[in-house]
């Protein structure tokens, strides 16, 4: 294990040059105090919990003290927001502290969110409010536990600073975020719209070395990079759709080339099933509504592919983009097959029809998605349908079809139930829970927040 002072920092993003980033130090805070932490995330960096409890950890994590060998920076990027291109965005309140390599050889970006104004803050203060910080801390860990790729939070630190949000005073906090990379679709877009293919080449090489070192850096590497991004994005959005997660803000600058859930802002987990749900109050047309996420992802991938056209033909690029629909369908079907407890013995068309028709019934009857699938493990062909508290009279024909599929597989019901309970969570972050967690944090009752975080780490029970 490492100490705070001996983390193995690398700074490969700095090596790309000043066209890609600006060296930048966090603004110091008044009184840093560690409030929340994830020991499991600390272990990714070869830190044990004793190091987190040192007073110096809050100093490093707040930005008051610089980690030895780190070279903090802010990155520049562009992006399409609600379909409109903005040519220069960049890290407005996120500072990349460096890249830490652990003893297993893994590289993790270590970044500080809420570190004050940066060159890209525009008219904002660059700080992170308590409510947003607590939600991100909880939701990111819940996503990871649910098997959904996501950036993770090492810790949340109180700053002793008050800021204004929506006309009221709120305490400012800092999050330390951990991810394999923070390169976005919009990072490539920025250099594409500047007509700088050489810089795109450098960024592509950096991305491949970081994420996919198995890809040779030959003339085919740009097609390979596009293909990997298509694959990871399809898998990510399939995971969102299968579990009922709505990101709410799928701008191209919020899309990770690594296929990670990035930039958790106005996000939500579906409760009563409704594909029109959008947690983003600015999304008045529902562009990023839950049911529209696959469409939004494909549109964003096309914008990413445009940045590769100096290195491949449009036909080659579209050949990779055209794989998205099939990859998404296969990944989504695999996850939903598991949620239904069906095996490969049941054909794809039957699975697809059961999923589509079942979700339509859930929507029509306003039934909770998570509750329905968790209780579905109790279903037995030929027995009276009793799935906990759910009123399911309208489902009778659907249950007949589901029973027929289970019977045709001739599997053991108890074994199926055990498999389903590994695929269907009992716990997701619900809106009322997250609000109570924020209120507890406002009252400085962080034990309640930690208890909730612990429950999210075991979403399938046990």
Brief digest:
The protein is α+β, with helices and mostly antiparallel strands.
Q: What distance lies between the first and last C-alpha atoms, to the nearest angstrom?
A: 29 Å
Number of helices: 16
Structural class: alpha+beta
Q: How helix-rich are the residues, as a percent range?
A: 40-55%
How much of the sequence lies in strands comes to 5-15%
Q: Low-confidence stretches at least 5 residues in length (pLDDT < 50)? A: none
Average pLDDT score: 96
Report what the structure shows:
This protein has 462 residues and is α+β, with helices and mostly antiparallel strands. The protein contains 16 helices and 13 strands. The chain is 42% helix and 14% strand. Strands 1, 3, 7, 8, 9, 10 and 11 form a seven-stranded antiparallel β-sheet that branches. A two-stranded antiparallel sheet has the order 2-4. Strands 5-6 form a two-stranded antiparallel sheet. The longest helix is centred in the middle third of the chain and has 23 residues, at 221-243.
Describe the secondary structure blueprint for this structure.
Blueprint: E1 9-10, E2 21-23, E3 33-37, H1 39-44, H2 49-52, H3 55-62, E4 73-75, E5 79-81, E6 84-86, E7 94-101, E8 107-113, E9 128-129, H4 130-145, E10 152-165, E11 168-179, H5 185-193, H6 197-211, H7 221-243, E12 245-246, E13 268-269, H8 293-306, H9 314-321, H10 324-340, H11 348-365, H12 369-376, H13 396-409, H14 413-423, H15 431-442, H16 446-456
Antiparallel strand pairs: 1-7, 2-4, 3-10, 5-6, 7-8, 8-11, 9-11, 10-11, 12-13
């Amino acid at each position: 294990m490492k100490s705070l002072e001996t983390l193995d920092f690398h700074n490969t993003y700095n090596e790309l040059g000043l066209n890609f980033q600006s060296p930048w130090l966090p603004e110091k805070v008044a009184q840093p105090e560690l409030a929340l932490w994830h020991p499991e995330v600390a272990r990714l960096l070869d830190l044990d919990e004793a190091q987190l409890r040192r007073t110096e950890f809050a100093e490093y994590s707040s930005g008051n003290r610089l980690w030895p060998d780190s070279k903090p920076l802010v990155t520049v990027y562009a992006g399409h927001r609600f379909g409109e291109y903005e040519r220069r965005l960049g890290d407005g309140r996120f500072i990349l502290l460096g890249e830490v390599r652990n003893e297993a050889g893994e590289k993790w970006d270590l970044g500080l969110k809420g570190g004050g104004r940066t060159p890209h803050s525009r008219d904002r203060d660059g700080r992170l409010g308590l409510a947003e910080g607590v939600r991100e801390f909880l939701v990111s860990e819940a996503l990871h536990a649910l098997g959904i790729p996501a950036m993770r939070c090492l810790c949340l630190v109180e700053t002793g600073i008050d800021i204004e949000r929506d006309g009221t005073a709120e305490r400012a906090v800092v999050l330390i975020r951990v991810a394999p990379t923070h390169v976005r679709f919009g990072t490539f877009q920025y250099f594409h719209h500047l007509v700088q293919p050489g810089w795109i080449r450098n960024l592509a090489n950096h991305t491949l070395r970081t994420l996919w070192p198995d890809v040779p850096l030959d003339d085919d590497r740009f097609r390979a990079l596009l293909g990997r991004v298509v694959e990871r994005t399809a898998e990510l959005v399939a995971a969102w759709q299968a579990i009922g997660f709505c990101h709410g803000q799928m701008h191209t600058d919020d899309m990770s080339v690594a296929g990670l859930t990035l930039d958790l802002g106005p996000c939500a987990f579906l409760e009563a099933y409704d594909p029109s749900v959008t947690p983003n109050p600015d999304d008045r047309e529902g562009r990023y509504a839950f049911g529209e996420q696959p469409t939004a992802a494909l549109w964003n991938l096309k914008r990413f592919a445009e940045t590769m056209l100096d290195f491949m033909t449009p036909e080659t690029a579209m050949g990779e983009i055209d794989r998205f629909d099939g990859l998404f369908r296969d990944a989504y079907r695999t996850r939903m097959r598991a949620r239904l407890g069906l095996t490969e013995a049941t054909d794809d068309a039957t699975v697809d029809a059961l999923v589509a028709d079942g979700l339509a019934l859930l929507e029509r009857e306003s039934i909770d998605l998570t509750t329905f699938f968790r209780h579905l493990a109790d279903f037995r062909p030929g027995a009276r349908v009793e799935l906990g508290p759910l009123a399911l009279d309208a489902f009778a024909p659907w249950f007949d079809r589901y029973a027929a599929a289970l019977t045709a597989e001739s599997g053991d019901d108890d074994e199926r139930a055990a498999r389903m309970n590994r695929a269907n969570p009992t716990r997701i972050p619900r809106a009322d829970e997250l609000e109570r967690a924020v209120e507890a944090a406002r009252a400085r009752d962080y034990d309640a927040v930690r208890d909730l975080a612990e429950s999210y780490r075991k979403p399938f029970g046990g």
